[in-house]
Amino acid sequence: MVKVGVIGLQGDVSEHMDAAKKALENLGVSGEVAWLRKPEQLEGISAIIIPGGESTTISRLMVKSSLLESAKRLGEEGLPIMGTCAGLIMLSKEVIGATPEQRFLELLDVRVNRNAYGRQVDSFEAPIKLAFSDEPFTGVFIRAPRIVELLSERVRPIAWLGDRVVGVEQDNVIGLEFHPELTDDTRVHEYFLGKAL
Question: Residue 144 and residue 177: Cα distance in Å, rounded?
Answer without folding.
Answer: 6
